[in-house]
Amino acid sequence: MTQTRRTPLSDWHEAHGARMVDFAGYLMPLQYEGVMGEHRRVRRSVGLFDISHMAEFHLRGGQARAMLDRLVTNNVGRLAEGRVLYTAMCREDGGVLDDLLVYCLASDHFLVVANAANREKVFRWLDDHRDGDVELEDASDATALIAIQGPDSLKLLQQWPRARHLADELTALEYYHSLDIELGGVPCVLSRTGYTGEKGYELYLPADEAVAVWEELLEAGAVFDVAPVGLGARDTLRLEVCYSLYGHELDEEHTPWESNIGWVVRLKKPVDFIGKQALSQQKSEGVRSGIHGFQLEGKAIARAGATIHAGGREVGRVTSGTFSPTLERAIFLARVENSVLDEALEVEIRGKRIAVRQVEIPFVPVRVKD
To answer: CATH for 55-129, among 3.40.50.10090, 3.30.70.1400, 3.40.190.80, 3.40.50.410?
Structure first.
């Protein structure tokens, strides 16, 4: 039996009343005060997330860039130092192995961030396709990852004593850029990234520094009503802005074109990456299904797995669904056949079929930029 892993902050969460759950093999906080309040705090001010369950791999060597460019769909070849790239790693048939962040820390040093549930799979894939001179390191257990998310996230960082000397750099830091720095003697990668749709930052730091930094950030952000936020609100926040979640909108059985992330596929980049042929063929033939957004009236909530029907037949399935704290109504994403989108659609919930209304996505505007 596999033992549940703990993050460097698991003890802190337990000691401060978090409701803990097993998520992707890690003991993680689901909520503190409740999902609704935590969600609204991030939309209104700022919240802290422990996302140390994420997997981090370092690739070093003269061929690291070229190796990554062959393994992912987006263009690593054009990635400048200090930039961050969102991309997909695919099988030969175009199925998504994982969605990743790739950090260019130096011309010959890259940080790849993968989903916790795919840690072993992605590491094996990188290792199996590794060029001879590329050094591959799994730094997941040695790395803590803290996300600072919300409209007051920059103000919090500027209030934090360790980062006050970076006031100008933080103000100038653009979306999907990063700084490889030291904060109070602690090596840290600080990036302007996140998973909430709000302006935010993520801090990669040594695991043994996590508790001290976490508590300092809570103290520095007290004036902005900062508080810890659990996985429950992280999910509702990302769903409102329609960020894909692996195992829901993304999986090995569907391509990026079918999963709302087709924009990360660069067919014209000068490298033949794994999956390119299948993805090119699918695009030319036409994509038959995709991820679409829907709203429900009333109190019913369509959860992942619920079936979508048109004309008496099943035409799709819900990938993610929740009650939106911002909109105060039920929302969901579903993978549906594109050919039926003009027809009357119903979702089946507890044996009853309910009419649904397709809406433009994202459900809530993304506010990551100034």
So the answer is: 3.30.70.1400
